[in-house]
Amino acid sequence: MKRRKFFKLASTGVAGLALGSACRPGDREAGRQVAGGTAEVPAYREMIKTSFSGEHAKAPSDRVVLALIGSGNWGTRLALETAGLGKNVWFKYVCDVDDTRGGRVINELEKIQGTAPVAVRDMRRVFDDKEVDGVFVTTPEHWHALATIWACQAGKDVYVEKSISHNIFEGQQMIKAAMKYERIVQCGTQNRSADYVFTARDYIKSGELGDLVSVKVRAFLDGPVPFNEAENTDHPSTIDWDLWLGPAPSVPYNVTRHRSWGYYWEYGGGIATAGEASHQLDMARLVLDNPGFPKSVYCAGGRYFFDDNRDMPDYQMATFDYGNFVLNLETGFCIPYMSKTPLDIRLGDTFPKWMQNSQRVEILGTRKMMYVGRMGGGWQVFDRDEQIVAQDPGYFPLESHLHDFVDCIRSRSKPKGDIVEGHKSAVLIHLANISYRSGNKQLLFSPDYETILNDDNAAALIRRSYRQGFEITDKV
Question: 3-state DSSP call for residue 379?
Fold first, then answer.
């Protein structure tokens, strides 16, 4: 699709905008001593390929066979939208460890494609079927990495939802698996299929904003929300609780853990993913022309509204130092008077009311400022006295992102939401959470080694321990 040019409303001058790389190969030192031992450059970097062989390419006339793994509300929507694209796709399986889910998507898919998908509990049955070309991984986050790695090993392409990984190590291993087995891995970072995000990037690169000063990412949902954990019970016969836990520690069944898994560090990425900050952070990186990793992070936050022993805070603010600019993230469930961009704006050509928009990105330059809306909403640039000098409306990019995934399965081309950039964006989420869980401590991060330099305990959170049978190891 041809990129649109942004609509410039007023004449402005040009000033340089420097975005230096946060990961320069020339700065690397083999075997540097850091917190937790001796660091090495992550092995996945030497495996990265810019293109795959055409061995598994499929003609447009060939049907693409898919499976849905995790049949909650969002997984259901992805499957139904993909089936309705008119791309000659067929969903053969709907996989969920919970038998009470999946009925709706199976019924709706049968109406669309004429045959009902097979319901299975164990995703390994899907991976064993050589007819399956690709899978959608829309499980709880603690399963994203292992499901993706298993799929790649089985020769399947993958669409994996945000946050793509549960920790930094997992993202590295996902890249290794994608590159080793030459599999398409499309991250659910849909803004990378939005044309207006690229015109915003081009505007910034033109120098019209001036030198970059700061980037502020906002991600708020309504709240605050109290937390009440149920008592442990025997698990219902309708769920395979052991499979649901997968890589996470073995614990008794608890309906709160099951239905509200995002409240626990064992399964989710905190409010930064539940509040959808992962989308805004990835979009901000794209608008800034994909800078690498930050030099440090400091995150403050807490359970300010309810003293209820919940793992996740109500509110977090994180600051990432990129050396020549600062990126701030503010997220939480505590702002009832702000709201997401309305759907009529995301599907139209008007703009949000930025002041009370709960999920905007604000970019300050030395000459002008820019607001960017995620998942539609477009962008606007302001000069003094609220004068709008440039803008481009935006459209909700989900359909385009799904088209791209199916097209890449056929062509073996690099997807727009590729796993390498998805990992770089997810690292920001993980670093913010590690800083918070380390006592709101500023952590120095090595972009070369992807490790924490000044705190052994924090460095240990870069990866987790895995249950037997569900391990993610250095070798994929």
Answer: strand
pLDDT digits (tens, 9 = 90+) for 352-368: 999 999 999 999 999 99
Peptide bond into 163 cis (omega under 30): yes
In angstroms, the CA 25 to CA 323 distance is 16
Q: Do residues 37 and 164 share a domain?
A: no
| Residue 156 identity (one-letter amino acid) | K
Question: Which CA distances in Å does 351 have to 253, 300, 344, 455?
Answer: 46, 32, 10, 44
What does the H/E/C string look like for 104-120?
A: HHHHHHHHHHCCCCEEE
0.85 surpassed by pTM: yes
Range of the domain at 78: 48-191+399-418
Q: Crossing angle, helix 73-83 and helix 103-113, to 10 degrees?
A: 0
| pLDDT reading at 18 higher than 70 | no
CATH number at residue 448: 3.30.360.10
Question: Residue 418 carries which DSSP code?
Answer: B
* Integer Cα distance of 440 and 188 in angstroms: 29
Q: Whole-angstrom Cα distance, residue 95 to residue 126?
A: 8
Report the distance separating Cα 305 and Cα 390, nearest Å.
Answer: 40
Q: How far apart are the C-alpha atoms of 169 and 171, rounded to whole Å?
A: 6
| Per-residue model confidence as pLDDT tens digits over 327-355 | 999 999 888 889 999 999 999 999 999 99
Cβ neighbors of 77 (< 8 A, separation 6 or more) are none
- For residues 41 and 13, state if they share a domain: yes
